Amino acid sequence: MDQHHFLVCNLNGDNEQLENGEVHWIVPKTAKIGDKAFFFAGIDGIIARGIIKTAPNKQDAIKLGWENRYSSVVSEIEGYQYGVDANALIDKFPEWKWPTYPRSYNSVEEKLGEEIEKFIDATART
After folding, report:
1. Strand, helix or coil at 44?
2. Which residue spans within the chain are E strands per DSSP?
3. Separation between Cα atoms, residue 13 and residue 9, nearest integer Å
4. What's residue 126's pLDDT?
5. What is the pLDDT of residues 56-102, one digit of tens each?
6. So where are the chain's domains?
7. Sheet arrangement for strand 36-40
8. pTM for the whole thing?
9. How far apart are CA 67 and CA 74, in angstroms?
């Protein structure tokens, strides 16, 4: 079953990395190659999407200075024309609690993930 992962980023520098189309990023250890990843940047909300291209690796994360975490290559990154802010996600998906306090990554199963993805695509426009 595919998962959708929501990864937290920071517009002060991370945006430039995302524009390269491929990044090493902190991901949950349950991420799988081919899973979808969405980048959340604070008040700007969901600003980009990509695909997990490598299996989560703790050693790569440590090399990048991320102790006790896993990282993967996320590629095929596409930025959205407009971000989808947390309030819009909360209003549309009240059962999904992560947008109320998005401090770390979050993963959702395929059904909810597809609904969220459709909403983001319709709202944000690539």
Report:
1. helix
2. 3-8, 22-27, 36-40, 46-52, 70-84, 106-109
3. 9
4. 52
5. 999 887 887 888 899 999 999 998 888 999 999 999 999 999 999 98
6. 3-124
7. 22-27, 70-84, 46-52, 36-40, 3-8, 106-109
8. 0.90
9. 19
